[in-house]
Amino acid sequence: MDRQVVGLIILLNAIAAGVLYQRFHDHPQVQLLESRALEWYHKLLPPATPDRCGALKWPSYVVISDRVVFPDGVRPGAVYIEGKKIVAVSENVTVDSPHTLNFKDAVVAPGVIDVHIHLNEPGRVEWEGIWNGTRAAVMGGVTTVIDMPLNSNPVTTDVVQLQAKKRAAKAKAWTNVGFWAGLVPENAANHTLLGQLVDAGALGFKSFMCNSGINDFGNVGGDDIAAALPFLKARGVPFFVHAEVVSPVESDPAADPTAYATYMDTRPPKFEQDAIRLLIEKLDADTTPAAPGFSVHIAHLADSGSLDMIKEAQARHPLTVETCAHYLTFSAEDIPNGKTQYKCAPPLRDAANKAALIAAVASGAINLVSSDHSPAPPSLKEIESGNFLKAWGGISGVQYLLPATWTALEAAGGSLSDLVRLLSEAPARLAGLAGSKGRIAPGYDADLVVFEPASPANTSVALNLHTHKLSPYTDVPLKGKVVAAVVGGELTSMYGHLNKKPCGQLQLKRGA
Fold first, then answer.
1. Average pLDDT in the 481-493 region?
2. DSSP-derived pairing of the beta strands 60-70 and 107-110
3. Using an 8 Å Cβ cutoff, are 383 and 470 in contact?
4. Residue 92: phi, psi to the nearest 5?
5. Which of 403, 305, 398 is nearest to 346 (CA)?
6. Which of 121, 248, 482, 511 has the largest count of CB atoms under 10 Å?
């Protein structure tokens, strides 16, 4: 073939390639391919500066969207990222940078912060571990989790066990990870030990006011709470409480244990109401000045009837409250016999109660929403027998926290800014991370979630990354398809695919 003809063919192909590149360059998948090519180039010719951990190898880049959730509203914007931080934001989406991710109409929001998750490591990785639990979390747009002191074995009630959790998370976490320490009868009055836990990185403390189901994590009573409050208030750390006080309940011994109502009747709303009333009494009695950061935080509120009592006490005390996505999604009437994947404590209640909780979330009467992700092996869930009374109580659901919350919130008239308040801003405040997380603003950590609020979320077993796939969310129609997640500047998930390795960081200091 004539050299001129060959040259012309090469030139025309180059022009065509250039046109295609210009046309499709701002599509995120094309940009990801470009980054992968750069990754291979770096393998052949390593860069002088350290490479990135995440899927993108650009040291700096810009995230663009027609809908960015800024602290003061939703509008088109560009988010400039260098290293682990957001260095600038702009409403000008015409960006002069070769390294951009343009997500068009998909929403770009602060990464979700789940303050209530049980990763159970070390000691019970077969229930859920840091690796699988945080992979599932980031696939669902969660970029930071605060791990509970149980059901790991041993539980995290001293510095030795906290250090063991830190070592495991540093090596395995796909999200950022912080820790609550356990406050139990054995350490409630030991302010020196509690202080050591905070100094070692605990962001606050968790207690049960009823049997936790774990032998070495005893429940606290009124005297234990009174003994701990002066330390908690003076140190400015939250007191996270499973608020149920168990009292005798009349039950029918002939009731069907595979019927959900049989279980629900064993834990009436009175348990929550009595516990919250006791917490308020102890707050009323303690005169220690409360440093910023302290609150009594009521975990996983299931009883809407307790809201008035909480509101009245909030006029006098730092008292915050969360509910969980499953209380906004499921109701007792819809639970089939034997389906123990729905069992949790406090129990899911009726549809009217669910509607009242959703209204409280939308209005701000409930401060935040968490997952309380607490899976267990199928044998402990009594899958074969379907016995609700014997089954372990705990719902597997961190991967669905965002879509489940958004589905309920949008139906109640809530906005994208409301969603960020519930899943990012308020959780950041509770964990003492509001200076670096929960907002898209210069100087904040580059933790982002990108999602399509009108598109269906994938709740299939095939995409479920939890250790155990048994979940009440399976195949439930939820809105809010997660497109991507950025953890500390590192692109960690995108279009259902994860980065090759975990990039999460430890969160060990309040006020950061």
1. 98
2. parallel
3. yes
4. -85, 110
5. 305
6. 482
Tokens of 419: 């969603």
Q: Are 466 and 381 in contact (CB under 8 A)?
A: no
- Specify the DSSP element, H or E, that contains 146: strand 142-147
For the beta carbon of residue 356, count every other beta carbon within 10 angstroms: 17
Residue 334 one-letter amino acid = D
Its sign, for the CA torsion 337, 117, 139, 431, is: positive
Q: Residue 463 is encoded by which pair of tokens? A: 């995409």
Q: What CA–CA distance (Å, rounded) separates 130 from 151?
A: 12
Choose among 485, 487, 365, 373: nearest CA to 426: 365
Nearest to 387 by CA among 215, 480, 266, 501: 266
Instruction: Provide the token pair at 450.
Output: 């990108």
What are residue 282's phi and psi, to 5 degrees?
-70, -35
How many whole angstroms separate alpha carbon 56 and alpha carbon 33? 9
Distance from C-alpha of 495 to C-alpha of 512, rounded to nearest angstrom: 31
Cβ atoms within 10 Å of 353's Cβ, excluding its own: 18
Between CA 509 and CA 512, with CA 511 as vertex, the angle to 5 degrees is 65
The angle that helices 222-235 and 191-199 make with each other, rounded to 10 degrees, is 50
Please report the pLDDT score of residue 34 as a whole number.
52
Q: How many helices (H) and strands (E) does the chain have?
A: 14, 18
Which H helix or E strand runs over 321?
A: strand 319-324
Sign of CA dihedral 425, 426, 429, 430: negative
Give the per-residue SS3 of 35-88: HHHHHHHHHHCCCCCCCCCCCCCCCEEEEEEEEEEECCEEEEEEEEEECCEEEE
- Written as six digits, the tokens of 499 are 């980065």
238-260: pLDDT as tens digits: 999 999 999 999 989 999 999 99
**Spatial contact of 78 and 90, defined as CB atoms under 8 Å apart:** yes
Report in angstroms the alpha-carbon separations of 110 from 263, 343, 415, 423. 38, 31, 14, 9
Distance CA 442, CA 210 (A): 43
HSE-up of residue 158 (Cα within 13 Å, Cβ side): 8
Q: Pairing between strand 205-208 and 100-102?
A: unpaired
For residue 8, name the pLDDT band (cuts at 50, 70, 90).
Answer: very low
- Give the bridge partners for 498, in sequence order: 493
Give all domains of the chain, ordered by start, each with its CATH number.
109-498 (3.20.20.140)
Query: Prior bond to 154 cis, omega within 30?
Result: yes
Confidence label for 157 from pLDDT (cuts 50, 70 and 90): very high
At residue 445, what are phi and psi to the nearest 5 degrees?
A: -60, 145
Angle at which helices 130-139 and 159-172 pack, to 10 degrees? 60
| CB-CB contact of 458 with 496 (8 Å) | yes
**How many CB atoms lie under 10 A from the CB of residue 256?**
15
pTM over 0.90: yes
